[in-house]
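Need a sequence for this fold. Nothing fancy.
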């Protein structure tokens, strides 16, 4: 340690302090991403179920439909071609988004292929930021950018604890 700064942060949860006990900082570091996983997992599951159970969302037109939402943001999107692609089959796109959110939410919540789930969540958030919330002013009022940034730590770190991945890891190494 130099000047009170920890230099072993990358592997501190694997090491034990004096007497074989874990330091509280090691424990906090090990579990730091669990609240983020729970929040993003539950939020994406809820968003998916909200879409799938809506009486209007999965329609090509009409109040509250995915089609009307896409037509409403087409001219203000950063990449209008993404919106045009969605408008070729609004109902199919709505189902794809809903089932994508459901898969990402479940994978993130239980930690199953957590990095892949986080990449999926980041891609969904990125596409929504570039289309639906691109015109938000100031930019920080568009929530999709914040979700995109929230996915990045999970893309990098995965689900080290309380996850299917952590349970499988020793079995993969055999």
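Here you go.
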């Amino acid at each position: 340690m130099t000047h009170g700064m920890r230099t072993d942060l990358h592997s501190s949860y694997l090491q034990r302090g004096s007497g074989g006990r874990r330091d509280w900082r090691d424990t906090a570091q090990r579990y730091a991403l669990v609240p983020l996983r729970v929040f993003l997992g539950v939020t994406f599951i809820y968003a998916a179920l909200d879409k799938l159970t809506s009486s209007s969302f999965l329609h090509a037109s009409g109040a509250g439909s995915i089609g009307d939402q896409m037509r409403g943001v087409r001219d203000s999107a950063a990449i209008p071609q993404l919106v045009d692609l969605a408008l070729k089959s609004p109902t199919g796109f709505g189902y794809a988004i809903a089932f994508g959110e459901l898969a990402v939410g479940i994978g993130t919540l239980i930690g199953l292929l957590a990095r892949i789930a986080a990449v999926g969540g980041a891609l969904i958030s990125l596409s929504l930021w570039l289309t639906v919330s691109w015109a938000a002013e100031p930019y920080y009022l568009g929530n999709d950018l914040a979700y995109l940034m929230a996915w990045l730590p999970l893309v990098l770190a995965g689900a080290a604890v309380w996850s299917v991945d952590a349970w499988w890891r020793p079995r993969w190494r055999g």
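For context: The helical segments are 24-31, 34-53, 66-73, 80-87, 90-110, 114-131, 143-157, 164-173.
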